[in-house]
Write a structure and sequence with these properties.
The chain is an alpha/beta fold and about 375 residues long. The chain has twelve helices and eleven strands. A hairpin with a 4-residue loop joins strand 1 and strand 2. The structure holds 5'-O-[(R)-(carboxyoxy)(hydroxy)phosphoryl]adenosine and zinc ion.
Length: about 375
């Protein structure tokens, strides 16, 4: 990694003798922005125009590296990011037809995520920003997912409920016009994406599990197997997916032996339905409790076709304005990171010359029941 960074610095600093050196205190001059994402198993880079339009969005997936292990292996993820990041960034510039010398800033995922994976993206971004003499801004991965709600639909109301459903998060936020987010509820155990991945593993469908369950569920009957739906208390906006996972395990034990393909499809459809119905019920309950009429659902699980159908039908019935980002903005990507970074800079956030990774969850790890609604972060 170090040799990569040194190579970059040398290349950037000595290729253009007129380039100004990086000044940490330099203000952001609005211009195109490069986003970099490397928090887990996707190496991604994107370029946004000065106006925030997505000019390129390149994602290199590591799925084939991790599938034989049934999950992401951190060490392998970091090494794969290192091997790919420069190629992915170059492709993002080429597709956008933007020269790196015209960039206004770089936004990079700072956390949460795998430490080794984050280090690759952050150090690459720091080297590039230093060489180009432009500001760098760290972005929280969740803020990135939240920003994806407006990528394809900039006019979507800013006062809304946002449900972030990914491999590591199931979080309901109230989002205010200025970008402030207040946590309304989150999962007490597994995230929705984790429940999909673990369920798929039990069903022998491989990794990543969400897309596999989604695919096979199309040929299943969701009425054959009914799995429990977690609703803790009438008005609770908390989630739990450990019960549905255990129910699938017991069902599989009870059924014994190898499953017929129709049985697997029926189980997948029933299991998916339980997760989808809980997500939809809580999201709409949050709308009602907050007296809002706009809902954004973001993160990898928002790519789920059944969830999209259920949400779209209910939103149409109840007159709710719904933002479901296009699939390429649901799963991890760098356009959302660039967009969140751009918004932070526009809101006056200062660039972070001494940027470091923050792999641990910043916003939600230490939340107690009584102050849950008070936990918030600003300028999303
Ligand atoms: O947002 P994301 O790409 O990465 C994280 O931030 O975690 O989300 C990945 C998660 C995985 O658990 C994956 O199985 C799930 O999103 N996922 C899906 C679908 N596509 C991805 N889950 C259900 N249905 C899908 N179509
Ligand atoms: Zn993500």
């Amino acid at each position: 990694m170090l040799s990569n960074v040194i190579w970059l610095l040398r290349n950037e600093m000595f290729s253009d003798p007129n380039r100004s050196h990086f000044q940490p205190e330099a203000r952001w001059c609005p211009g195109s922005i490069l986003g970099i994402e490397s928090s887990c198993d996707e190496t991604a880079a994107a370029v946004l125009s000065r106006e925030g339009e997505v000019l390129s969005n390149v994602v290199s997936s590591q799925a084939t590296i991790h599938e034989k292990f049934g999950g992401v292996v951190p060490e392998l993820a970091a090494r794969a990011h290192l091997g790919k990041i420069d190629l992915v960034v170059r492709e993002a510039f080429a597709t956008a037809q933007v020269s790196k010398h015209t960039l206004g800033a770089i936004a990079v995922t700072q956390g949460p995520g795998l430490a080794g994976a984050l280090l690759v993206g952050v150090n690459y971004a720091k080297a590039l920003s230093y060489g180009l003499g432009i500001p760098i801004i760290g972005v929280n991965h969740l803020q990135g997912h939240i920003a994806s709600a407006w990528l394809a639909d900039p006019m979507f109301p800013r006062s809304c409920i946002v449900l972030v459903v990914s491999g590591g998060h199931t979080h309901l936020y109230r989002h205010e016009v200025g970008g402030r987010c207040t946590l309304l509820g989150c999962t007490r155990d597994d995230a929705a994406g984790e429940a999909f991945d673990k369920g798929a593993q039990m069903l022998g469908l491989g990794y990543p599990g969400g897309p596999a369950i989604d695919r096979i569920a199309h040929s299943g009957d969701l009425q054959v197997f009914r799995f429990p739906r977690f609703h803790r208390a009438k008005n609770s906006l908390e989630f739990s997916f450990s019960g549905v996972k255990t129910a699938l395990l017991y069902k599989l034990r009870e059924m014994g032996g190898p499953l017929r393909s129709q049985q697997t499809a029926d189980l997948a459809a029933g299991y998916q339905e339980a997760i989808v119905q809980v997500l939809a019920t809580k999201a709409f309950a949050a709308l009602k409790q907050s007296n809002l009429a706009a809902l954004a659902v973001v993160g990898g699980v928002s790519a789920n076709s059944r969830l999209r159908t259920v949400l779209s039908e209910r939103a149409a019935r109840e007159g709710i304005c719904l933002s479901l980002p296009p699939i390429e903005y649901c799963t991890d990507n760098a356009a959302m990171i660039a967009s969140a970074g751009r918004r932070l800079l526009m809101n006056g956030e200062r660039p972070h010359a001494d940027l470091d990774i923050s792999p641990a969850e910043r916003f939600v790890s230490a939340i107690h029941e009584e102050n849950r609604a008070k936990i918030s972060f600003s300028k999303g």
